[in-house]
Design goal:
homodimer; ThiC (chains A, B); thiamine biosynthesis (chains A, B); three-stranded antiparallel sheet; 15 strands; alpha/beta
Amino acid sequence: MNAPDKFAQLLSLTREPFPASRKIYVPGQIHAGIRVPMREVALSNGESATLYDTSGPYTDPTADINVRRGLEAMRTPWIDARGDTEIYTGRAAQAVDDGVRRAGQPQASTAPPGGGEVREATSVGENSRREDRTDPSDPEVQRIAALRAQAAGLQRTPRRAKAGANVSQMHYARRGIITPEMEYIALRENSKREWMAEYLSDAERNQRLRGNPMGAQLPEFVTPEFVRDEVARGRAIIPANINHPEVEPMVIGRNFLVKINANIGNSAVTSSIEEEVEKLVWAIRWGADNVMDLSTGKNIHTTRDWIIRNSPVPIGTVPIYQALEKVGGVAEDLSWEIYRDTLIEQAEQGVDYFTIHAGVRLPFIPMTAKRRTGIVSRGGSILAKWCMSHHKENFLYTHFEDICEIMKAYDVSFSLGDGLRPGSGADANDEAQFAELRTLGELTKIAWKHDVQTMIEGPGHVPMHMIQANMEEQLKHCHEAPFYTLGPLTIDIAPGYDHISSAIGAAMIGWYGTAMLCYVTPKEHLGLPDRNDVKQGIIAYKIAAHAADVAKGHPTSRARDEALSKARFEFRWHDQFNLSLDPDTAREFHDETLPKEVSKVAHFCSMCGPKFCSMKISQEVREFAARQGLDEAAALAQGMQAKSAEFRDGGSEIYIPIQKL
Amino acid sequence: MNAPDKFAQLLSLTREPFPASRKIYVPGQIHAGIRVPMREVALSNGESATLYDTSGPYTDPTADINVRRGLEAMRTPWIDARGDTEIYTGRAAQAVDDGVRRAGQPQASTAPPGGGEVREATSVGENSRREDRTDPSDPEVQRIAALRAQAAGLQRTPRRAKAGANVSQMHYARRGIITPEMEYIALRENSKREWMAEYLSDAERNQRLRGNPMGAQLPEFVTPEFVRDEVARGRAIIPANINHPEVEPMVIGRNFLVKINANIGNSAVTSSIEEEVEKLVWAIRWGADNVMDLSTGKNIHTTRDWIIRNSPVPIGTVPIYQALEKVGGVAEDLSWEIYRDTLIEQAEQGVDYFTIHAGVRLPFIPMTAKRRTGIVSRGGSILAKWCMSHHKENFLYTHFEDICEIMKAYDVSFSLGDGLRPGSGADANDEAQFAELRTLGELTKIAWKHDVQTMIEGPGHVPMHMIQANMEEQLKHCHEAPFYTLGPLTIDIAPGYDHISSAIGAAMIGWYGTAMLCYVTPKEHLGLPDRNDVKQGIIAYKIAAHAADVAKGHPTSRARDEALSKARFEFRWHDQFNLSLDPDTAREFHDETLPKEVSKVAHFCSMCGPKFCSMKISQEVREFAARQGLDEAAALAQGMQAKSAEFRDGGSEIYIPIQKL
């Protein structure tokens, strides 16, 4: 590698393993070649815990990472072995793919993701176009050219289904085939159970803490067959384009762990392609299960190459964004042909799921006229504009079966977009929103007819008491296809803190049955999230997803809570940090008050100070309980009588003399 | 004032009014002398909004603030007029009140608030005692001596009920008296309704968005009689000690707006008395409805004088903390006499409510022996220790009626403490917790027999699916006395972010019926919150409380959401900021991307950029809807036919040429 290497420099920030953690790989049984990565945390008391790990090879010090080469194509042997695909000469690259203007066309939009709203508004963008640079002596021109050349080298020759074949995981599942992806997912969802026995063996606690799955059917242990069956039923999807062999398979479904999505996206002004890859690595480090690349403007194709080739998590896109670029930002000029070309372009690159706003039907558009905040989805606005201009039905709706043909040739999953989602609590659960939702249900049936995997996008802005109706309507009209919601934000008055206002709604709807939660960052509605905003959004959503998992009753989730609580109670500070969602911040906050290393092994905390110890009192409680017994104590409750203060004789001072520590 | 004046310097930070805001005062009708402060926000479109305002006179530029004199004693004429109190020579100050050691005693604890847990652990503390300074030439000794002398000047001569009288608001309410406090509260809860008409007049929206009060009985309009009735029933309390005439009356009850509490507390090492007052002013600026002073250690009495005399919000304390200081930190040496002396000391100072852990009964202590995290409440630990040492019932329980006699002589409210609350999800809703809760219900009946106002404290750490049971049990066993919960935290693995993990639980339990939410800061479990942590905790809890209010159906809450949403949709950026919970942060985040003033009035946002405008599209939708009508559009849905593209003729480009802006 050439020095100084910007990538190496950037990636050095996020390649280090989490503290006290090592990557372990759990082998498959049906499919021997499978190696499922997990993070094993070594605890200071000799125990360990194994955690679900989204960070990919980046946190494995033994992995040979080279972003110019891309990640290892782990799934290629699996795909090859199925014998139903062919390698072919893909669509020829076009200048317009990267936003280069065609003669006579209006200037292409460089509007970054987002129509002023949420899911499509949380990635980095720009506000004004830079001059198109063409001077070959310009270092920036040289840099972009070099990146493109390298990306062209990164791009794999595409693969597609052989004529008549269908390569979707749903298609295999429905034929009774347990793919390596399915076994991989089963192992991943289960985590290792050995260390959890201590936390999950108490009968009283199991009864008292048993989850309320709200209709979900969670197995005690996920088998590969269970994964197959859920995918076959359409209740879960495995986003895994055959042209994204680098992906570590994961599942999105109500009967599995709740997942989260983070949005990234390029901006010619405020970020570079390299930075987008770094943002990807950063996002998965903190727990993003999926990433949507919402890039627009220049270098959109090249950016996607870099992201997909270096991503161990599924990548989703909103293809209408790039299609709009190709027609110079004029929505009326969009056509099925241009859109179809974009779908194939992105499917060949390896995009795992497409947000497709096929439910924004012409007759629903007037239903938004009386709204407080109109249409706030960028995709929804573009399609509404097209429909109104032509006075025609949405071409994504009329060409839906054509789209299915493309999806099943690459195993791209549908994420049926909610272009009419509410942009304020005032518009929640209105006629337009639910009319679109019902249409998404109709489209789901069509997709399933083609064995195309499908999930359904949901809102948005919804007050707490109206959230459950969203889940119920979705289950009812969309036939249990996985729900994928943005938040929802429960109030409107918290700009600057909408990661919190939406984490409340996300936790609730996750509990009610939503399979994946699209994050919201603190910059929502206000500006472009930076690196720290991305992390804040992800952590808030890991909290929401974990809260939902605990409420539903996932045993692995409760075990992690209990392991951390035990460490907390026993003043094992390092273990408390290392089992938390963000060990760095936990440690830093602790060190602000008690920086010395000795304080991390001392039996006190900054709240109590060295002379007061709740743990010691609790030990005394245990001795007291053992000596007195519950029955006698209960008897005492009736008629109190003074007893000999034998307990006091034990030198039971509440403050431990400091010299004893 | 002497310059440089540290107070003036500190307070200058937080005395400025919120942007575009002015303090208005709404007059009473029954009680003409009443002036209820509200914050009126002037909007850029000529409209205005009136918001509930906790910030007190500090944000009124016309108020003459002098922290050495204290706030105006607004309520004194009201109290005088009742003619049932007498001014008397209070309890003589003792050196031990401020933590000065008695000869032969162990060193007093300087443990700051918190038993390693939550409510009692969120204020500033210290970990090691400074040397007791006595050298009169030491500037620090001089400073403290001066503060004490000034505080002694601040302290009002105490007032108490005349012999046989009961001065509690509940007592008046039960005799049918509408006090000025009650009318004040009615006006405050209603806010001004004129500006809300626009947001609350649409029948479809009112029907669709109607709240789900979960059994609460919210009036459309709060009358003084309604306040009286709720207080008489015990469903609401008005914390307002007759020795805290500076308080701006507020109500805590399920049928009113959800309130929040912030904790502060001194630490001889890390903060000064002046800083505590500044922290109070900072906390109420961001919306704390109540503040608990959890000071311990040195200067505890003096600190409280400064805080109460300068506080427009009710102040709560945990008297056992100071009592423990008086016995040198040895829990076994606590006695009813020392505790009683402390109650009187604090009641004379003007504390509005006492957390009293009278439900930590001896027979319940063994029930905690098998817990994952034992007893985590500091107060609970202290009393468990006392009970075990003496093998006697908790003296707060056995002397409960004696305590009632003190409470009703000053109108101090009970906050019956949950000393056995769970410290982890694993311990949620267990036998110990609910045994204590039932006891608090018994004690509530005793308190009500004395017409003493009472609220009930609740957990703590509770997974989402177990939260509602807490509310149901509390309603069932505590006879609808207001519930006051700490969070609850929904998961255990988020140290560093527990303001978020707990805001989720707080929003839910607030919706279910909790009347006041005790905040949690990001430093929970880890360290001592600084000024920014206090703000972060408060904003997270304002979000939770507002989300609960919206879900319950408070019209004023929805109106604020709608006003901000309208401003957002119309690109009135300044209005969006100024109607938000934290205008400073919203503006700052926006300015990071688009700093120029012109961009705040431009019709675009950083997500869309100047060439794409969702508002313009929505305007087109309205025109489209008007032209086509819903019926025709619906007919179109059946059989699509190409129509003339008349709409297109309107020059309906999706991107507005930048020169038009």
